[in-house]
Design a protein that fits this description.
This protein is α/β, with parallel strands linked by helices and about 230 residues long. The protein is about 40% helix and about 20% strand. The termini are far apart.
């Protein structure tokens, strides 16, 4: 599991307690570090008071791409804070100070409700019109044509395909795919390359000031030709 906590002392104490109960624990002190490491965890204990990103923003970013259980563990204890945390995607909300046994019980309850960590086989394949993305084989097809893409291009396309109706923020793309190793134009360059390889710029649409989402691609033109 992942413990996200900006207070090093609290983080280490919580991690020790969890390890004594048999849990494997990774720790992160910032929101950026949490976004880079949460994919390998089966549960996230998320402090909302982080030095770089607001914890609610981190919660929304994780929830937009994953159904991993999230428990907000924070000093924000008002009713409004709890409502905002749950609306941001947290499965439960624990206000500091809390009892360790209560936290363990809440973790167990959340995990019982969680989906199995291992995805079904068909969840590894996403289709969007004539576009087919196979995460198991790491292959991309447009109709009967296989498209050769780089590792980062595939990761970017798969991220968009996992939520085809949603706009994926540019910041989230950068953190989830490149971590800290990116320049200002990294995403634009990869999007441009993907559009060229897919054969139509409309496969990936730019939402100015926000990010990117999947578009109709060449599906509309294909339907038009078929109708004619």
């Amino acid at each position: 599991m992942l413990v996200v906590e900006n207070n090093v002392g609290d983080m280490e104490a919580l991690a020790r307690g969890l390890r004594r109960h048999g849990h494997q624990v990774c720790c992160a002190e910032t929101g950026n570090a949490a976004l880079e490491t949460y994919a390998d965890a089966d549960l996230v204990l998320l402090d909302l008071e982080l030095p770089d990103l607001d914890g609610l923003e981190v919660c929304r970013a994780i929830r937009s791409t994953s159904d991993i259980p999230i428990i907000a563990v924070t000093a924000r204890s008002s009713e409004l804070d709890r409502v905002l945390g749950l609306e941001a995607g947290a499965d439960d909300y624990v206000a500091k100070p809390y009892g360790f046994r209560e936290l363990m019980a809440r973790m167990a309850a959340v995990m019982r409700r969680a989906r199995p960590a291992r995805p079904a086989a068909d969840a590894q394949v996403r289709t969007h019109g004539r576009l087919r993305i196979d995460a198991g084989a790491r292959e991309v097809w447009v109709g009967a044509r296989r498209v050769e893409v780089t590792r980062k291009e595939f990761d970017l396309l798969w991220l968009l395909a996992k939520q085809p109706e949603a706009v994926v923020p540019r910041r989230m793309i950068m953190h989830l795919i490149w971590g800290d190793s990116w320049s200002r134009r990294t995403v634009d360059t990869h999007v441009s390359s993907l559009r060229g390889k897919l054969g139509c710029s409309d496969w990936i649409l730019t939402v100015r000031g926000v990010g990117f989402r999947l578009g109709p691609g060449d599906s509309a033109s294909v339907l038009l030709r078929q109708a004619v």
